[in-house]
């Protein structure tokens, strides 16, 4: 039987399939696509997307602290194996977070989970200071600065300056892992509550409209975060032969993180060819299908075609890497295709759905 935490990597195990060139849906040409209203879209987003993704994160995070604690208690001669296990637990938690956090809706925004879970850049000086104070428990950890905790801080403690068993730094790493677990469990509970919202209720109409607008804006923001903050900005900041400081570079997981983000963005955008047309209220309704249900087939076709071009660009990185001059050119090409997807969303999709796009801190500068 597989360890429960491995479920958090289910999406990652299918990434190679997701990055293959997608084929156009054919079912909608033969069969009528049902009309999906805002209620169906939100039931889809919270119940069939957010809730299971948040639970995957919670499951992975609950295995993280025990793995780090085992490292701290590892006897002589077993520390390297324990470190590898702790790193694996971090990777599973990171991949689950990248999937959920790629489109930050509802509880992720309300709880400021992105800041708590994934503040960047981490600040080593603050980590060293926190190690000296040795905070214990949730209350004490509230006083620790955000740049000294979360997934980036734990990455620093497991890769950049690997903690040694029975050291103060290792004890602090356990507390960081426990803090990640607390937030992951809390956001999973919040998504469980949100999934039970009756979006069709008369007193929820205004909130439903706002939630739909939030989703479109955050989907666009997720595209831009991946394109600029995580890919192009670090590349352009590198000088000469300097290696770009991509997020997750210390753990050598930058490319894997990009693919996890894109997997989430893509899943919310287009329906796989083999998937049945979603029944309203009973399955995930990606944007392409939502548009088709409203008779906007030409726009849905544009969305599918643009998404396929991103697939192809990211697949090139997956096959040949992101390092060196050629690798940098592949990253820039992927960034270009992501920018085209963002423009389509802002100029065509949002207006068609009567959604206003606002400025986000994910926007490039």
TrEMBL record:
Subcellular location: Cell envelope
Swiss-Prot/TrEMBL keywords: Lipoprotein, Signal
Signal peptide bounds: 1-24
UniProt GO cellular component terms: cell envelope
Domain Imelysin-like: residue ranges: 52-342
Entry-linked InterPro entries: Imelysin-like, Imelysin-like_IPPA, Imelysin_sf
Name this protein carries in UniProt: Putative lipoprotein
Organism whose genome encodes this protein: Acidovorax soli
